[in-house]
Amino acid sequence: MRLFLVALQFLTRLPVRLSRFEPAWLNDCVRHFPGVGMVVGAIGAVVLAGAALLWPAWIAAVLALAATVALTGGFHEDGLADTFDALGGVVPRDKALAIMKDSRIGSYGALALGLSLLLRAALLAVLAARPLPGAVAALLASHAFARAAAVGVMVSLPYGGDADHAKAKPLALAVAPRNFGIALAWCGLLALALGLLGIQPAHLLLAFAATAAVAWAMQRWLKRRLGGYTGDGLGATEQLAEIAVLLAFTASF
């Protein structure tokens, strides 16, 4: 529970208070990132379901997306924009890392962020116009599976930036494989719960496959360009995996 609260505090704007803090907890709390994703997805699903009673599906979708972005403070969206600014062009590794640290947003980042928000809103609008259980399942799965994908990238790569100047230094240290195993267990529990609620296994398997494809592609891209992961690269992984899961659910429902 303590590590879950650390993960919740790190990934969201929820008012979590801890009586004390150990830096090592931040490294171990990554095992609960999918659990935090379930919380974020659940809040988005409540907003989507409530808004769909009053407004058309596309308005409900935008409100649900806005709720999840507000809840996380645009944490992952910032990583997506920085990653595409840094790696969208052909620049050396050191230059790419410097671009990632720049608080300004460039054309590659703006395009990636805009298209990501537009595509997620469109996918949620399509799902919101269909039977509601599918939209709820998609929100829960996209946020949970996507954060597991980020943990998988962390486990498979070394830190690719300057560890001494990392914003969250404990996350620049090696992440134990057991943490990824627990992250996958979160996803397995969610899949089991959704299955018991009537979601077909084929939908979940397609979502798992889409998540794995994004994690594999991001692992190769970050390794080739930076020699490892960065916090921004993990944010980009999460965002792209969210889109992949929503695409999978939209195609299969």
UniProtKB/TrEMBL annotation:
Membrane-spanning segments: 42-66, 105-129, 135-159, 205-222
Pathway the protein contributes to: Cofactor biosynthesis; adenosylcobalamin biosynthesis; adenosylcobalamin from cob(II)yrinate a,c-diamide: step 7/7
Top-rank taxon: Bacteria
Cell compartment(s), UniProt: Cell membrane
Enzyme class (EC, first level): transferase
Family: Belongs to the CobS family.
EC number(s) stated in the UniProt entry for this protein: 2.7.8.26
One GO cellular component term noted in the UniProt record for this chain: plasma membrane
Cofactor(s) listed in the protein's UniProt record: Mg(2+)
Catalytic activity: alpha-ribazole 5'-phosphate + adenosylcob(III)inamide-GDP = adenosylcob(III)alamin 5'-phosphate + GMP + H(+); alpha-ribazole + adenosylcob(III)inamide-GDP = adenosylcob(III)alamin + GMP + H(+)
GO aspect biological process, one term: cobalamin biosynthetic process
GO molecular function: adenosylcobinamide-GDP ribazoletransferase activity; cobalamin 5'-phosphate synthase activity
Lineage of source species: Bacteria, Pseudomonadati, Pseudomonadota, Betaproteobacteria, Burkholderiales
The protein's role, per its UniProt record: Joins adenosylcobinamide-GDP and alpha-ribazole to generate adenosylcobalamin (Ado-cobalamin). Also synthesizes adenosylcobalamin 5'-phosphate from adenosylcobinamide-GDP and alpha-ribazole 5'-phosphate.
HAMAP family linked to this entry: CobS
Membrane-topology descriptor: Multi-pass membrane protein
Presence of keyword Nucleus: no
Keywords: Cell membrane, Cobalamin biosynthesis, Magnesium, Membrane, Transferase, Transmembrane, Transmembrane helix
Protein name: Adenosylcobinamide-GDP ribazoletransferase
Pfam family, one: CobS
InterPro entries named in the record: CobS
